[in-house]
Design brief:
The chain is built from ten helices and no strands. Helix content is about 65%, strand content about 0%. It has one domain. The two termini are about 35 Å apart. With about 230 residues, it is mostly helical. The protein is elongated, with a radius of gyration of 22 Å. Helix 5 runs antiparallel to helix 8 (about 170-180).
């Protein structure tokens, strides 16, 4: 159960990076359909990976009983070991540990690859020793990064919504499952969510991931026995 590897997809995408820069230079609106198509295609892949990971994660943990069943047994005088919240809360932490960095990386790659943060290509002089037309790295292509305008930031956030929308459902599945097994697992889950939330606050491209974590925090708080 490791982070999905998208390095091959990104490498193939980089072969078109310079072409996208020229398209943006010729017409700012030309990238709209390409951005949308990219988002919808990758969204299907990410949602499938998250769904399969969440399912495998729950299946890998054997839950012998819920906390409610354990309390009933205690009332009946049966001496049984209680379920531990650490097991299910660690499953939730693993979901975040694998997918939060992946979603942030995919968002950042998309923002750079689809030219949300760069000026048009500067003219290259013949004989320029620093120029290599075969260099397909994003660093080589995107050398003139500039602060995003409000309009461009809004367009980026709209695209990221399309890129990642729906994946939150598989996080909710883990939260709800952990709560059913042990309501007190909500306490460590709140803590780990807060840690990841603070780690993404400086990246413009992580806006959707921050909203996801914020929604997870709200859902956990609503389920937490401390709040009732």
């Amino acid at each position: 159960m490791k982070m999905p590897d998208h390095s091959d997809l990104r490498f193939k995408g980089r072969t078109y990076a310079r072409m996208l820069q020229h398209m943006k230079a010729l017409d700012e609106n030309s990238l709209g359909p390409l951005r949308k198509s990219y988002c919808l295609s990758l969204n299907l892949l990410l949602r499938r990976e998250a769904r399969e990971f969440a399912s495998e994660l729950r299946g890998s943990i054997k839950v012998t009983q819920t906390t409610a069943a354990w309390l009933d047994e205690q009332d009946s005088g049966l001496d049984q070991q209680p379920p531990t919240s650490s097991i299910v809360s660690e499953a939730y932490a693993k979901m975040l540990r694998i997918f939060v960095p992946l979603l942030v990386d995919e968002s950042s790659f998309f923002a750079s690859f689809m030219c949300f943060d760069v000026k048009p290509l500067a003219p290259q002089l013949v004989g320029d020793d620093d120029y290599d037309e075969d260099d397909i790295s994003l660093d080589a292509v995107h050398t003139k990064a500039t602060p995003r305008s409000p309009a461009e930031l809004e367009a980026l956030n709209h695209s990221l919504q399309e890129l990642l929308d729906g994946i939150q459902e598989d996080f909710y599945v883990i939260v709800d499952w952990a709560h059913r097994v042990d309501p007190w697992s909500c306490i460590p889950m709140q803590g780990v969510t807060a840690l990841y939330f603070s780690s993404t606050h400086k990246d413009d491209a992580a806006e959707f991931v921050r909203r996801l974590l914020d929604n997870l925090q709200t859902r956990i708080q609503e389920l937490s026995p401390v709040c009732h």
